């Protein structure tokens, strides 16, 4: 299939590479063209705008930083994806973005005869590289079925959660959990350290039981060994939680950080 | 070995039963004598006070509710465990109690020629029944080695974490994590429900990835199926977190709940 790829950061570069490795033809775009070099070496073609990507592709993937980036890249009247996509073409936005924007893109796509899927991921740079991402999708079943073989090149827990925006809502659930779990890991390990305990022994004592989490058994272990190399940008987590709080507000739901 | 058992609540009754099943002679005490009936049916003897339990035992286990209960049951000059234990006898306090009290009991035991271990557990009523508890111990290595075969009748992740109080400190790390993870589960599932998502599908989408936790994959699944049967008393969690906050305060450590 002819795929388009927009956004080749720490996640996107690996995800696109999996598609090329499975024999798909890729056209790529990045605001920083130099970042595309590793994909061009694999045979991808370089486009000069999101619109040019869309013109050359059946399915266009976007993995950019913020909802504003998604809006610009997709909807810009001169240079956006929707300005170049042929009727029946599909946009898959894998950015962690707002459910509200996903619903808006879904409605706009219906008007123009496109398919759209919101499909944010979980698993970080490690999962992107290994092709083991969890992918949470929102959109029409027919669009999901068209794109599923492509998504399965990048992840192994690929699920359609409901209509447009459902993937983003599910990702919010994921981020609420991930953030809470990390608060627990940090407070627990700080307490252990101050109490004079062997932090690695504490992780072994508590990590396999009812207090265990992926965060403790992976990130906690990194912290304990003083490995502070980042696998995700904290600004992105802050952005994600801001989206979650805004969406919760809109649903009349008061989450902890607001309740205090 | 002649074991003594004080406290036959939702945890203690199962833990003591495992010792009897492995052939140990048990003498038991509860403020509510009727609660001992299932253990007496298994061959345990009933004592009229903690002191009488200690007189009949080489190793006395306590699993009561609060640090004040521990203090009364162990240190009461007329009826306490220490009033009845012979020299060389051992007390194993499996209550989740304060590290400070554990240190105090350790010092008192040295003066009197007893061994003492603080050995709180994780795994809930299910783990107590199945004999799969995690047991976090603080005390002298020789005492730990004496008691280890008994502890291994009740649990499978039994660790000596350091001197007196280290088991309780490790349990605090466990409870800080468990509570944070549960906040994450509740907020995440509330968000999912309000957003109109299928809550069980969300758990499948996020529970196996980087946001996963024992709490989500066990308690979250229970919540999603509307199974609200309790496995632990919320008052006990509140007590545990109060201890954690007091101990953190004493260590000059500001945890989240205090920082707000």
From TrEMBL, chains A, B:
One GO molecular function term of this record is:
oxidoreductase activity
Domain (6-phosphogluconate dehydrogenase NADP-binding): residue spans on this chain: 2-162
Q: Which Gene3D superfamilies match?
A: N-(1-d-carboxylethyl)-l-norvaline Dehydrogenase, domain 2, NAD(P)-binding Rossmann-like Domain
Q: Which residues form the 3-hydroxyisobutyrate dehydrogenase-like NAD-binding domain?
A: 165-255
Catalytic machinery residues: 171
Write one Pfam family the protein is assigned to: NAD_binding_2
Q: Which UniProt keywords apply?
A: NAD, Oxidoreductase
Which organism is this protein's natural source? Diacronema lutheri
* Protein name stated in the entry: NAD(P)-dependent oxidoreductase
């Amino acid at each position: 299939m002819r795929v388009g790829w927009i956004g080749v950061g720490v996640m996107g570069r690996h995800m696109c590479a999996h598609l090329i490795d499975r024999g798909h033809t890729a056209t790529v775009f990045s605001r920083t063209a130099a970042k595309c070099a590793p994909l061009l070496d694999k045979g991808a073609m370089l486009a000069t705008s999101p619109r040019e990507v869309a013109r050359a592709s059946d399915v266009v993937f976007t993995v950019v930083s913020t909802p504003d980036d998604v809006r610009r890249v997709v909807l810009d009247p001169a240079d956006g994806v929707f300005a170049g996509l042929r009727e029946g073409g599909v946009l898959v936005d894998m950015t962690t973005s707002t459910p509200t924007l996903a619903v808006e893109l879904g409605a706009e796509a219906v008007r123009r005869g496109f398919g759209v899927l919101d499909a944010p991921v979980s698993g970080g740079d490690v999962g992107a590289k290994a092709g083991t991402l969890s992918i949470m999708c929102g959109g029409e079943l027919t669009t999901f079925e068209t794109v599923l073989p492509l998504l399965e090149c990048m992840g192994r827990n690929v699920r359609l959660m409901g209509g447009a925006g459902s993937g983003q809502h599910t990702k919010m659930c994921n981020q609420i959990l991930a953030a809470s779990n990390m608060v627990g890991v940090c407070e627990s390990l700080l307490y252990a350290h101050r109490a004079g305990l062997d932090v690695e022994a504490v992780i072994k004592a508590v990590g396999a039981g009812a207090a265990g989490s992926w965060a403790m058994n992976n990130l906690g272990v990194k912290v304990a060994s003083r490995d502070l190399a980042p696998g995700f940008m904290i600004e992105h987590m802050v952005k994600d939680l801001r989206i979650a709080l805004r969406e919760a507000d809109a649903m009349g739901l008061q989450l902890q950080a607001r309740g205090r």
